[in-house]
Amino acid sequence: MKKWSLKHRIMLWSCLVSGSAVCLFAGVALLSLYLVELDGVDARLKSEAQRAFEELKEEKVLNDKEVRAAIFEGTSFLHGYIYSSHRFDLKFLYPEVMSMVFVDKAVVDKPFTQEIGHLHVRVAFFIHNGDTLVLAANLRSIRELVEDLRSAYLWSIPIILIAVALGGSWIASRALRPIVEITRVTQQITAHHLGKRIPASETDDEIGRHITVLNGMLDRLEKSFEQASRFAADASHELRTPLTIMRGNLEAAVRSDIFPVDQKPLLNDLLEDTVRLQKIADNLLLLASFDALDKLPLILIRVDLSAIAREAFEDAELLACARRIKLKAELQHDLYVRGDAILLRRLFLNLIDNAVKYNQDGGNLNLILDSDKSSVVLKISNTGIPIDASVQHRLFERFFRSQVDRSRVSGGSGLGLSLCREIARAHGGTISLTQSDQNLTEFTVTLPLFQTLT
Predict the structure, then answer these.
(1) Which CATH superfamily is domain 298-452 in?
(2) pTM, 2 dp
(3) Highest-pLDDT range among 93-107, 229-243, 296-310
């Protein structure tokens, strides 16, 4: 039942509860009807016994015929009798099976039910002036009445349960409609759309209070997210100027002859770290701008993606030369997209830089730019170390670095791929890891095609 929807569980529980209640009601009703009818039979047996005693006491001589006439006169209600006369010291019974009554019941103070022959009868003992009269009434009519009513219940219970199931489904649908709406709205709330709120309920019930709590939580989340984004943007912006000054001073120090030769390696290390910090600050500032899309100055124009790919390939040749990496490019000409040329160039350079950085010496790097009817597809692959399957889903998280990405020399900051994803998203595209094994590691970028010139 855990896999069933809440609507179906409500419907099932409604059927179970209603079915149990109907079955309990039917059982109580049948038992009550049977007991009431038995009380009526007992009262009638008592009345018939009083009448029989009155008629029998007037007889001077008794025989079977007279006794039977006196007891059965004017009634078809009775099935049999046993009459023991104290006056005549005689015993009469009809029919013969009535002799079975004394076998099971010697002394009885109140009526009881017994099987005599193949009949279900109600038996009552009556004593008057020393005479004993045992009367038996056939309960066939009562049993038929109860069985008819039971059959009616058995036919009606499935119909009732079907009606309850349909009604439960309708009630559950109406009751869950606000929850469905809450789910639909909350699915639309993302990091870029934190300002969206769930419409307030018209009634102050549990759902209304739930919506109020959720909207309050979203308000707090939006404020916290804005503060975090503002902090990242402000911190990155404030760091850019001193880092630029530090980089300039270090570059001047490396070129000058003021410092001894043995200090040059230290200055070079400081310059590399400063450049790395400057790059991290730039990436953080750009990511903070993506978190607040209304502040991101996207300049959307028709961009020749083929030209950007060729420029990126030329840069890759310079980067790959020192490590003897073999480059291969298959670039379709005149592929255009609508986007920001600077950001798209940064997307290409980040991916190519990663493909060179995490490649093996003497390996291969392939760059493919192609298109289909509606999209431009960029594929960048290398022969680097395979990315472990357990961390592939985290590659585009900010500041995430795999074990092979933690060295000081080649390791990145963990922002490159997340920045690529944000750039692709801002242009209506996607980026994904499509292959990573011993032969190849490949990333694929898909962007909407703007126009193809022939």
Answers:
(1) Histidine kinase-like ATPase, C-terminal domain (3.30.565.10)
(2) 0.50
(3) 296-310
Instruction: Give me the amino acid identity at 280.
Output: I
Instruction: State the pLDDT at residue 116.
Output: 80
| Mean pLDDT confidence for 161-189 | 83
Number of residues assigned to the chain? 454
Q: Write down the domain spans for the chain.
A: 6-145, 206-293, 298-452
Q: How far apart are CA 337 and CA 423, in angstroms?
A: 13
Per-residue confidence at 43, pLDDT binned at 50, 70, 90? Answer: very high
Query: Is 447 in contact with 427 (CB distance < 8 Å)?
Result: yes
Sheet of 112-116: strand order equals 90-94, 78-85, 131-138, 119-128, 112-116
Phi-psi region of 414 (alpha: psi -120 to 50; beta: other; left: phi over 0): left
SS (H, E, C) 264-327: HHHHHHHHHHHHHHHHHHHHHHHHHHHHCHHHCCCCCEEEEHHHHHHHHHHHHHHHHHCCCCEE
329, containing H or E segment? strand 326-331
Residue 365 contacts residue 316 (beta carbons within 8 Å): yes
Q: What is the sign, positive or negative, of the torsion defined by CA atoms of 423, 427, 428, 433?
A: negative
Name which of 308, 363, 364 is nearest 332 in CA terms.
Answer: 308
Rounded mean pLDDT of 83-87?
A: 78
What residue type is 243 in one-letter code?
Answer: L
Q: What is the mean pLDDT of residues 263-274?
A: 74
Average pLDDT over residues 183-212: 76
Identify the residue with better confidence: 174 or 38: 38
Report yes or no: 283 and 419 within 8 Å, Cβ to Cβ.
Answer: yes
Least Cα distance to 79 among 143, 139, 138, 142 occurs for 138
Mean pLDDT, rounded, of the chain: 80
DSSP letter string, 61-89: S--HHHHHHHHHTT-S-EEEEEEEETTTT
Kindly compute the dihedral angle of the four CA atoms of residues 28, 34, 36, 39, in this order, to the nearest 10 degrees: -140
d(CA 431, CA 423): 9
The CATH classification number of 206-293 equals 1.10.287.130
Q: Which residues contact 36 (CB under 8 A, 6 or more apart)?
A: none
The answer to whether domain 6-145 has CATH 3.30.450 is yes
CA atoms 101, 104, 110, 115: torsion sign = negative
Which residue type is seen at 125? F
